[in-house]
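Issue: copy button drops trailing tokens. Both records pasted manually instead:
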Amino acid sequence: MDYTAQLDTALNRLHEEGRYRTFIDIERKNGQFPHATWRKPDGTEAPITVWCGNDYLGMGQHPVVLEAMHEAIEATGAGSGGTRNISGTTVYHKRLEAELADLHGKEAALLFTSAYIANDATLSTLPKLFPGLIIYSDELNHASMIEGVRRNGGAKRIFRHNDVAHLRELMEADDPNAPKVIAFESVYSMDGDFGPIEAICDLADEFGALTYIDEVHAVGMYGPRGAGVCERDRLMHRLDIINGTLAKAYGVMGGYIAASAKMCDAIRSYAPGFIFTTSLPPAVAAGAAASVAHLKRDQGLRDLHQERAKILKTRLKGMGLPIIDHGSHIVPVIVGNPVHTKTLSDMLLDGYGIYVQPINFPTVPRGTERLRFTPSPVHGPDEMDKLVRAMDDLWSHCALNRAELAG
């Protein structure tokens, strides 16, 4: 086989479909985010405003987080030096797990290097703990959940997105004595819609199933202490396993699950994705713990975040742009064509200094390609005005549809 030619074929296919992904080289400026420097391919630099980051609250530059990280790196050095089992467990890891368990009102929490790994490792390990397990998974679950379900070797059922009636049909058709788990999300990141948490918990109770929820796009931002939508809706006690990230609202890196002490102990003991991975650097764990602790009491930052998102959605709607609004902090503007989406992204960057990455298939279904904006408390009125004017200009220049989508 001509391996190089085969690689060319695979890459050319992406180019032809308009969904080849390009990375731009940006340098964040501590204390100035969302402003950053774009290092262009020709070696020149330009100031930009980042509108697509997942540092939802700007905690990646918060003094409390940076101070904790500096203290830890001075005290311990850079890396952890091993897996959690072999020299890689420190006081910083234990402190962070305690903060997370307290955040979610659970007996324990278990750290992973990312929320992707936490989902994949946990969901692929559950059938080892519960032989004959059937996993019921929402069709729009994140790729990490899909991968974990796919790899677990057990039975799986895919229910239509947020369709509790379809989920019921699937559960009724299975052995009532088989162990079961329902896996879903609280906030779906591409459309910004919410999962029907209470209805799914009711169904889980009825059929004797465990519940597994991904709160990655909600932790830090919803609930009186930032524990997510489950806390906001007073449902945390009904979720058996809660997955979250430290790389979005908390501004650092890492992922985790929070659950009963026995569940965490079992996953810790059986999941290869936990056992054989070097643990987070102590400084990262220290920064994350400081961020979690701070956001337990900073409701003002959460309120400002929601306010910024509401303002942006209102202004874009006012211009007739096709946005999807489910009431969350995520602001998707539908373009519907991968080439046009990439072109708009390039024009915003080159002409206006606004960076928003195009979202194409397979992240979203074909025909729903979009620009996905993530306003934060550090996106002020000036940044908002500049973005809205740019979108108005480009929508007119490109003669794009201004009929608003239903939320």
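Record 2 (pasted manually too):
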Amino acid sequence: MKAVLIELPNQHSSLISIKKVKEHDFNATLHYHDFCELSFVKRSSGKRIIGDSITNFNDGDLVLMSPNLPHMWYGDVEMHNNRVNKSVEAIVTYFPINFFEKICSDDEDLSKKRALFEKAKRGMCFTGKARKKMTKHLEKMLHLGGLPQIIEFLKIVNIMLNTDEYELLAGLGYNHTYNEKDTERMNQVYKYIMMNFTKPISLETIASVAHMTPPAFCNFFKKRAQKSFTRFLNELRTGHACKLLQNEKLSISDVCYESGYQNFVNFNKYFKQIIGKTPSTYRKEFVTIRNF
């Protein structure tokens, strides 16, 4: 499995390409390409890696990425186990970064475009009313072609240029450092972590997955992921814990062990360090907002 610069349908087109995805699960491969990508996950849930960011995604996830930003989506374990029904529905749109220059000469709009793509280098996850409007236009685009499709896409662009309803994903200083050999190794590492993060993962074990010694692996991982393996694993586990805490049927102790922590002290320590509050405070705040 390789995460490399991939070629896309109509890659040499000067306009846009849109496709509908309906599969049992995501093809969980870290990859990047020369096009901007707008990904709308209509139905699925799991974890996504964008640059150095690892976060949960759910139905309705909508993310804009600039060219050459490494990314992957990995469905929840239950989705991988349920292969009777197609668990993933998504709409993915690709377009060249010079798309705007081809259709716009207004200095103000071009300035907004440049600001937008500076943000897209980190990945932009759209929220609120902006996301709702954009996904409606994406649904329409699937059934259109030619100029009507482009007009519909320009409506999406207009929303992206003018909204403040978004979250930036990768870190401010994130810099893509992958090559083909590195990303093949990182794919093996990410896949193993995604499948096993709820169980103990020793440094020796994960280093052997990459066919490296533990010290060499630590240096390799930190350079590519731009964070230590321990930090990455704790971010993954605490992110999963956030999702589980939304289910009030689970005790906080249950959440601790189901997220991969072996003791409550470490769970509280890393959760507060990464999320900024204790698990119990997080749950109380979530319940208050949900019932508001």
